[in-house]
Known about the structure:
Protein name: lytic cellulose monooxygenase (C4-dehydrogenating)
Number of domains: 1
CATH architecture: Distorted Sandwich
Number of strands: 11
Family: Belongs to the polysaccharide monooxygenase AA9 family.
EC number: 1.14.99.56
Distance between the termini: 60 Å
Shape: globular
Enzyme class: oxidoreductase
Helix content: under 10%
Order of helices and strands: HEEEEEEEEEEE
Strand content: 25-35%
Number of helices: 1
Amino acid sequence: xxxxxxxxxxxxxxxxxxxxxxxxxxxxxxxxxxxxxxxxxxxxxxxxxxxxxxxxxxxxxxxxxxxxxxxxxxxxxxxxxxxxxxxxxxxxxxxxxxxxxxxxxxxxxxxxxxxxxxxxxxxxxxxxxxxxxxxxxxxxxxxxxxxxxxxxxxxxxxxxxxxxxxxxxxxxxxxxxxxxxxxxxxxxxxxxxxxxxxxxxxxxxxxxxxxxxxxxxxxxxxxxxxxxxxxxxxxxxxxxx
Length: 241
């Protein structure tokens, strides 16, 4: 019995270590403190993923849908600057699972630290890093599995103001059945200065952006269809700004 318990404990520890969070905003070339500008998530201890794309928690996976926003600081960044998210795991900081990375933004009304920010059809995609299909081997490669953080440029023409910026990885290692894809999410609160007069879009709601049946979400990455030619990124097109 003790041996079985020890084995189960070891398996559980491995699964926890394989998961991660995105608690650190990357700005000015460095990562900030955990949960300083990123809303603390419900998986801050377990590191477990979100698997339902329809729950209200899918927006930012806050620890508390009403209070977490107000307990989080807002960072000031310039339009056109580079920001991102750093991954944190129990054993190291690598983004372990193969998958698709993206970043969304939304104007934060009435403010970035409001629980009501980002609750409408206001989100737009500003960056993505998709798996690459190698036709010679008929396999997908996933650059994200070697990353400890990911960064992207705030579109230079983004209007000044307060925003939520949402980093997301869709882990696809067990995505061959509905609900198998694992979502790792972090939402940072930012105030954009020196902005432009761009018109971001297309706009989507989160939750609502995915059904879970998209080819880029419901996929067996280890047994691709014979007619597979490229990974289809879910969600809207990237707004270049």
